[in-house]
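Researcher: I'm preparing a figure for a lab meeting and need a structural model of a single chain. I don't have an experimental structure, so a prediction will have to do for now. The sequence is pasted below. Please return the structure as tokens so I can convert it later.
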Amino acid sequence: MRKLICLCLAAAVMLGVFSGCQETPAEPIVIGKDNALMIEAAKATPAAEAVGMSLSEQYGIPSELMLALTGADGKLNITADAAIDTPENPFPILRIKAGEFDQETVSRFWDVLVGDTPLLEWDPIQTKADIEETILYYKQVQAGVMGSVVEPEEAQTYIDELEEQYKSAPESKERIPADGTLRQKKKRVGDNVDAARYYGVEANAEDYSMAFSAANNPDNNEPIVIIDYDDKGNITGGFDLPVRRAAQISWFRNDTPGSHCGGIGSVLSWQTDSLPGEAEGILNMTPREAVDRVEALLSDLKLGELFEVSVLCLVNNSDESTGVDGGVDEPTAYAYSVECSRMAAGSPCASSRYVSGSGANTRDVYSPAPYWAYEHFEIRLDDSGIFSVRWESPLDILETVTEETALLPFSEIEAILNKMLLVMYEPEAKNEHLHGVDIHIDRAELGLWRVAERGTFDTGLLVPVWNFYGTYTERSEGYSYTQNKLFMTINAIDGSIIDPDLGY
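Model: Understood. Here is the structure written out token by token.
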């Protein structure tokens, strides 16, 4: 039998312990921070001699960060050779909420990106031919000739369900031409075909060479969980729909080699007309040309004053991990991934490139806070032009809490960074299975970042923070793994540590 459980996760109560920032402790996660104290600190009047100074002059911010630390009895090595990105306009504190896309915005994206290309509304209904193809797949899995996350002994269950669906499936279906109009759609959770609703559009070319989608937030304000039981009361599976705020517009075409490039890639300077050495002979577009094209697109989308280019990375179609044999696939295609950051009241938001959002994990309905994605605007392109655009979790600015904030001197931020890097990463380096952990910080950035507000999930604050990015490498016997990472987020007003995954 099935049992439908709708859970209300008292988010407001749980978020009562989530708030701004206070004194940095000796532990990496801070609970019970006080926004009111942080805002008062932000309102401190600058010294008379600071009037007319740039932020760098006022707070002693250098042009680069250099450091070398060791810990965990030599197993942890931390270095920094990082350019420091410091905007020179004063930073505000802003109250914001999760936004959505209106029809005007969606239509503008459709007109610029899709244009006259005929797209069809996506139809989830499977024809008999579709089901026959899926049944064949599971029979191959069952026979052991096809790899799958489904075990061969489990395949028959899927085959039985598909054969039942086949009885009522249509022979064919008529695809409807799409025009980018937002329509109310239903979210299905298990057998509940109308668990929640949202406004969106999903369309693709008949040959799937291009796709466009827009989806606003589902209307469920409580997690929905459906748990399946067998006749003996044992849990056999289930479905869920967490509470999420992650509206998104995306457009993609896959008719170019660059569209097969994945990963985050390596950060490059875009103020150059020189090709990255590793891409020579494969990619002809320079970083400067790539940024020019992105800025032209932002202008066409009427977003030129709302977003500016913040990070440019080179991505390829090889496997970046290094295994026991030390080998990687040689890239055959390169592309640029360009992140654009929102300008809020004249100040840039910090890059969210290495984190997705705060609160619950995408699939974790039991988390004490719902999931709220950080705003992310990414454009990918190669010699053929732009082939991917994705804008997730737009923000609506509700009010200005303070127009200009007082910040800590950078010397204090640096002291906190040195201390907390060891606190946060020594336990990992002491893992007996690792030979060592290498951390290299290659970028430091001052920008606005979203933090949770006490007693509410639907609004938050944008506050100035210092973000420190770089590469994290684990080494063990015959194996190393390197990933790009946001190492630390420090509140620039009071020096407290913000956990981006928690949102405070």
